[in-house]
Amino acid sequence: MIKCSCLLALVPAFLSLCVAAGPAGAAAPPIVVELFTSEGCSSCPPADALLARLATRPDVLALSFDVDYWNSLGWKDPFSSPAATARQRHYAELFGLATVYTPQMVVDGSWEVVGSDRQAVEHALDAARQRPAAVPVRLVLDHGAARIGLGAADRPVSAAVWLIGFDRRAQDRVSRGENAGRMLTHIDVVRGMTRIGDYTGAARAIASAIPWRTDRVAALLQAADGRILGAAVADGAQP
Description:
about 20% helix, disordered N terminus, 4 helices
């Protein structure tokens, strides 16, 4: 479930290390592509395959969120979670959508498209590349803790800091439902997420214990209107 974590104090040296570099000296942040999918949805495998291709790009941070509202229709997706559904429903509110659907891709928190529509996804990626420089985000994993440094924004902002754990690859054979008999492959499948703090535009540092054992961990800085203001990713979380 989505939950708040206690904040851990960081030493001043870490804060200086993480936020000293401004946008001009920082590498371009990845474009965050979120896929809302389900093993119970026969339209989702093509979108899963498209996300796998996008995940090979160095400028993309791919995240696969398996929703749970398909679970009552013949097959329970083992990767699904109420947290994924809650995140998608929040996007539906922000985009003014009447309902949620799968497969859906959300690009940088600002554009939503059918997850298997490659042309629409590419257009959204192009739009994301045209946006102004994001807030610098630095992420270091250290003995089961995530240390995050956030640079200063050019104006006040209301945003949340999210920690997300995900596995690079998973496979599952589906025995019932719309995808019965298929072996499905998942890329960058989210196994947990937690909100660890808030951000108002001033440079700051946050630390949090990592509550999952996953292949990778991402830190997202997300504005109240859904925009992803910055992101960073690191390998090898060991809680």
